Amino acid sequence: MAQKPSIPKGTRDFSPAEVSKRNFIFETIRGQFQKFGFQAIETPSFENSETLMGKYGEEGDRLIFKILNSGDFLKKADSQALGQKDSHKITSYISEKALRYDLTVPFARYVVQHQNELEFPFKRYQIQPVWRADRPQKGRFREFFQCDADVVGSTSLWQEVEFVQLYDAVFTALGLKGTTIKINNRKVLSGFAEVIGESERLIDFTVALDKLDKIGEDGVKKEMQEKGISSEAIEKIQPIFNLTGSFSDKTEGLKDILATSEVGKKGIEELEFINSSLESLGLQTATLDLDVTLARGLNYYTGAIFEVAAPKEVKLGSIGGGGRYDDLTGIFGLKDMSGVGISFGLDRIYLVLEELNLFPETVAQNTKVLFINFGEKEALYGLKAIKKLRTSGITAELYPEDAKMKKQMNYANRREIPFVVLAGAEEMEQEKFTLKNMKSGEQFSVSVYELVEKLK
RNA sequence: GUGGUUGUAGCUCAGCUGGUUAGAGCGCCUGAUUGUGGUUCAGGAGGUCGCCGGUUCGAACCCGGUCUUCCACCCCA
Fold first, then answer.
1. What GO biological process, any one, is recorded here (predicted)?
2. Are residues A147 and A245 in the same domain?
3. Could you check: is the Cβ of residue A382 within 7 Å of any atom of nucleic acid strand B?
4. Cys staple from A314: which of A86, A134, A271, A310, with CB 3.0 to 4.6 Å?
5. Does any domain span residue A417?
6. Which bases on strand B have an atom closer than 7 Å to a protein beta carbon?
7. Is residue A79 part of a domain?
8. Does A449 count as an annotated binding residue?
9. Chain segment A358-391, per-residue pLDDT in tens
């Protein structure tokens, strides 16, 4: 071995066992998506840069992987920009495609592009990898899968109610109990900013507020101050730090705080509708919680904002997020098309299930029986039985070489194949097979028919 | 993108203030055992010490760069 090969930072190879577990999550999510009436679409892994750039805020642009143009791309680059080593400027000359950063923006593009073929409200789901040029950490990769479900073409709040139920259904089906579905509303956040007279600094305000659980109340206030929010304003929003109790306790508190804000009141109304509906419908294993500090993905969300936290004992960021965006398709030229959707972070859900030991043992599909190879004639004899087993839906295989028994048995052992068939001259003569249970060590002499029956 | 951290055999890790041929456990291969694995015993293979450069008589160890890992920030699934 000269130089060990490697894979890029933040990417991973998946072993057979890992793939089995990942597929278990995929299939569970897919199953629930379909039950809720979503239909799958797929979009290209890369888009035209202009489709993605500017949709995720400044920070987002930095994290988008750009694809270098083909051919002699430097020839066309602006020589002045090149001379100045202005990376930002040069990028537009040498790269016109980029890897997708999430599934929502490509979906919006898809809706606009195919608007005449779609039936609205259009419910789609999409399970594909996305890429971010982020610095990796635990549960943070540069290539990871998102599982999205979105509805466009309906402003009905029943959609939000459905999505909370969908979250609950998926995590319940995965056996992951005790998740918290945090909900907030952009209108409430706008209301806060309005009430304190800092509407122009809405984003700075909410970004700071979002860090409450991380840096504490004083930290939040300090950051707000640094961003230029006045002390009077900070004083005014003090009550939001004191919101506690049940969902309705919090909405009652919000009513006082946002009494003078029309947007704010609208936001509270929406939250109350969603909560009371869900109280009647009930959730299986998840808990719905109002978290007014939740502000993620603010860039295009206009109504509800969702985020799912794993059970408390697992230290990991969110395992899902989503919200309503009233005008995402507007940037691609289609007005008045409200959308709402949620996303599941497959890779993080994997880490959580692994940490809590929640993967069912049955996820790994393995060969059920290995035929020991004793030579050419015996192999053929074995393969005839294997053919029958496979027709009956049993995974069976023949060891390809007539290697030493020890080696073949060892192979079965290591691959955790539960049964082995020994069929040599003796068995062939009697038209039998020796079936051995690798765990108990028991052996039986059986006919082909009995072999199929026993292994079913 | 900013600051820090990590890298020694397939895996988990030792390796003293720089000093001869770099070690352990597990795993792997061979044999004891030529149609019976997981146990045991005996033997064996396997490392340009992440990479590049520097300091030194001498570098796994010190210095610089680079890549990678993990962590904090930023941001986020």
1. histidyl-tRNA aminoacylation
2. no
3. no
4. A310
5. yes
6. 1-3, 28-31, 33-38, 48, 50-51, 67-77
7. no
8. no
9. 888 878 778 999 999 999 999 999 999 999 999 9
How long is the CA A2 to C1' B56 vector, in angstroms?
Answer: 29
Give the CA-to-C1' distance from A364 to B33 in angstroms.
33
Rounded to whole angstroms, the Cα distance separating A449 from A445 reads 12
Q: Tell me, yes or no, whether A19 lies in a domain.
A: yes
- Expressed as residue numbers, the domain containing A205 is 182-288
Tell me the C-alpha to C-alpha distance, in Å, between residue A359 and each of A178, A269, A327, A349, A422.
16, 40, 39, 11, 33
- A213 and A233 together in one domain: yes
Nucleotide nearest to A348 (CA to C1'): B77
Domain boundary among A288, A318, A345: A288
A5 touches strand B (CB under 7 A): no
What are the pLDDT digits (tens) for A192-229?
999 999 888 888 899 899 999 888 898 899 899 888 88
Is A125 annotated as belonging to a binding site? no
Residue A296 labeled ligand binder: yes
- The answer to whether A205 touches A197, Cβ cutoff 8 Å, is no
Work out if A445's Cβ lies within 7 angstroms of strand B.
no
Q: Is A146 annotated as a binding residue?
A: yes
> CA of A92 vs C1' of B39, distance in Å?
67
* A82 found inside a domain: no
Q: Are residues A144 and A279 in the same domain?
A: no
Nearest to A433 by CA among A425, A422, A443: A422
Q: Are A153 and A122 in contact (CB under 8 A)?
A: yes
A124 labelled ligand-binding: no
Residue that the structure tokens 């907030």 belong to: A184
Asked whether the CA dihedral A416, A419, A423, A424 is positive or negative, the reply is positive
For residues A36 and A172, membership in a common domain is answered with yes
| ipTM score | 0.85
Domain count along chain A? 3
Is the CB of A6 within 7 Å of strand B? Answer: yes
CB A258 under 7 Å to nucleic chain B: no
> Tens of pLDDT along A410-439?
999 888 899 999 999 999 999 999 999 998
According to the 3-state scheme, what is the secondary structure of A295-341? CCCCCCCCCEEEEEECCCCCCCCCCEEEEEECCCHHHHCCCCCCEEE
Residues A343 and A379 grouped into a single domain: no
Nucleic acid strand B within 7 Å of A410 CB: yes
At A4 the pLDDT is 67
Nucleotide lying nearest to A417, CA to C1' measure: B37
Residues A150 and A20 in one domain: yes
Residues A118, A175, single domain; the answer is yes
